[in-house]
Amino acid sequence: MNYGELVYSGDMAVAKTIKTPIGVLYRKHSDGRGSNLVDLNECITGCTTMLDCLRYECRVNRNLTDKHQIHFILDETGENAIRLCVEQGSFISVAKLLRDTPSIVAHSGFIKTLVDDLLAFTAYLHSHQIYHLCFSPDNVFVRKGDNNVMLLSHGSFYINAISPKVFYEGYEEYIAPEVMNGEAADARSDVYSLGKFFSYLFAVAENPYTYNKVIRKAIHNIPEDRYNSVEDMVEDIKKAGMRKSIFINSAIAAGIALFIVGLYFLLMPSSDSTVGFESISQTTPETIYNPVSDSMETDTTEEPDTGSFMSVERQQKMKEYEEKSEQIFRKRYSREAERILSKIYNKDYMGSNEKKFMAASQPTIDELVAAQEELASQSHISKIRSQRIATEIIEEITERKKKELPVYGIQK
Fold first, then answer.
1. Where is the composition biased (Acidic residues) (predicted)?
2. Who has the most CB within 10 Å: 132, 242, 324, 354?
């Protein structure tokens, strides 16, 4: 029997089951239609007290209006087929999602949205005195299509009616120690389980700096050493995020500073060039003067008269020529530097790490220098002057690019 035949072969066709503390969630197809069901564990169906707890949760479930709640009703129509009928939708556990599609963690915003929504929904449950207690990756779901995080049944409805060691067999790692010991559960119990879930999540995804300290505090064995509430946990994440922004801005500044220093040493005139510049500035007008260009006659036996020097008009024309050449160079180099610098000042490089940014910086510097030398030659201005103008332009562009950076820039 192939997969299609399995899916549509009748009432007994079951595919893709998900084990949870209360039972097995699966999607059943019959007459071309699908429905979500939960076959309840024997510890519930075989105990009147547990069935009463389940009926109570079903009544409460109808009034939980948050979009992250999976709704269900109890079906008791069959003598030996007590089960839950679950709302429409295609649900998959986070554990299975990450096993089947590990690349999902790289999708923009996936991890942050999952974490934020899970924390917000848990706070919502706490406002109704409900505690989930088991944030195992097998017991946290996402809806296919939009990856909206979803929760099914909540442990606080059952914890006083059955031994946690029986109810949470196989999930012990994600249950707070006081719950496993049969003590009272509260918000700190969920804080512990959330911390364990985040530890699992960031073992698959890259663990951001923001959550390290938060997770360590959340998973303390002693409840008093944890966060008192999910809201406190969220507040600490926000504070860590602010510290991260400061850290990232420092890293950006460091990366850009190294980049500018590299340009400075390449574009500023060398010591030899400076000596040459001073030598030219100390040269007498007679050395620069070309007598043929300004006078048809030259008497070497007489002292040169005032007409032998470059005229004021000629000096003015030379100045205008130099200014025009510099304008041409500045305009062309600004356009070229913008193009070159855009190769590293973009979301791909500025959203990566400092190592990657600096690795791309050296070839960028080389390209900027090459462009400066080529355009200086074409514009007929001195190498020294072109270096100074190029440095000014690069600093201007860099400052503008820094202001355009996203919140999450270069990272360590």
1. 296-305
2. 132
